[in-house]
Amino acid sequence: MHNEPLAYRMRPKNIDEIAGQEEIIGKNTALYHLIKKGHVPSMLLYGEPGIGKTSLAHAIAGTSDLPFISLNATVSGKKEVEDVVAEARVTGKVLLFLDEIHRFNKLQQDTLLPHVEKGSIVLIGATTENPFHDVNPAIRSRCGEIKQLKRLEASDLLGVLHRALTDQERGLGKQSIRITEAQLLKIAEGVNGDARKALNVLESVVIASDEENGETIVEDWLVDNLIGRIGLFSDKKGSHFYNLLSALQKSIRGSDVNAAIYYLAHLLETGDLVAVNRRLLVIAYEDIGLAAPHIGAHVLAATEAAVRLGMPEARIPLANAVIEMCLASKSNSAYKAFDAAVRAINSGNTGDIPPHLRDTHYAGAAELGHVGYQYPHNTPIGSFGGWIDQQYLPDKVEGTEFYRPVQAGDEVKLAAIYERMKEMKKNKR
Fold first, then answer.
1. Considering only Cβ atoms within 10 Å of each terminal Cβ, which end of the chain, N or C, has fewer?
2. Residues in domain AAA+ ATPase (predicted)?
3. Which residues is 126 bridged to in the sheet?
């Protein structure tokens, strides 16, 4: 009887047993050939939990035959790092796998990095966070390879499950198990590309199933029950969460209703309603803006309703808001105009406020020359209201156009008014 979990026992022993990740460690990659020839470069492995970072490091160690040491940066101190350095001095070279490398502190770095630089320690770091945001630059500079692992496809996971069922030494091959291909596919499709979860589900299903005449018989309801919500990956403040927020915004901006609803559902399942509401409000004004100005008010109402309702009812107003935003006309002209004005100011394109626009609510303003302002409301112009041609920008930036209208939705009318006023100014000057 095995004491270790099935997922631990089935961890690949060498790089030929790695499932998926063909672009990173497939037989046609340079990394595969380097490792096969005994050269292991220091590298960073980046990806979500369960994606195979630890398995890949163990497989590389099994292929290279280097002395292998595994540490976790959250619990390892200076002493553990010094032990690795001492081992490298004795053996000449060691392969160090450092999990949660983004938590590596400066003291650990100062002890380890010189040995990584001269090659006596080969460092494989693993992180769930974006290494360009969260891994110290000193570590990144010494890791020539930064590999982003992808979640496995269902076909890759089916191969992992079949191997576990047939492997008599490490897997379940010595047991008689009746499990259908449809049940295995359901597991493979229900774990969100996570091989460890797939093997955990398989092991749990086999343990929980009844036996008949020495054969374990797996039933559909048991598979459904054990998969449950296992496919959901939640890291409210991690890189994947912000990737989901980014995907939601880009899907709305791209008017893809189905993708936007998918990412909204994933985000709400993580439970961070505040972050979702905030992003939706940003999208309403950043990506839809003047083309459909009513959307901002609609989204604000939906997010406020979501806060009052809480989950799961919050999904209802938010789903309405997301679909309306997807199908609304889009314009980013307003914030682009603002950003252009900021760039002008920061580059020194500033000047004195025209005297006639300055404050006059005090005695002596006229003596300072704060005169000449013409009140637009006194000059009606059609159904627009009041307008008169006078200078508003400082002399230095007079005539600069920060606003570039987009011909979309309601902004078409605003753009027409804007162009008409430009023409009127031109004719009067």
1. N
2. 39-151
3. 45, 99
Distance CA 352, CA 399 (A): 15
Pairing label, strands 121-127, 43-46: parallel
Q: What is the pLDDT of residue 139?
A: 79
For residue range 22-60, list pLDDT tens digits in order. Answer: 887 888 888 888 888 888 888 888 887 777 888 888 888
**pLDDT score, position 429:** 59
Residues of the chain with confidence (pLDDT) below 50: 1, 231
The pTM is what?
A: 0.57
Based on the fold, state whether residues 351 and 413 are members of the same structural domain.
yes
Do residues 222 and 177 make contact, with C-beta atoms less than 8 angstroms apart?
Answer: no
Residues 145 and 42 sit within 8 Å (Cβ to Cβ): yes
Order of strands across the sheet that contains 177-178: 177-178, 215-217, 210-212
Does residue 191 sit in the same domain as residue 294?
A: no
- Which residue carries 């902004």 as its tokens? 411
Give the three-state DSSP class for 70. Answer: strand
Contact residues for 375 (Cβ-Cβ < 8 A; gap 6+) = 386, 388
What is the Cα–Cα distance from 251 to 262, expressed in whole angstroms? 10
C-beta neighbour count of 229 within 10 angstroms:
8
Residue 206 lies in a domain: yes
Q: Is residue 3 part of a domain?
A: no
Longest dimension (CA), the chain: 107
User: Which residue's structure tokens are 């980046």?
Assistant: 46
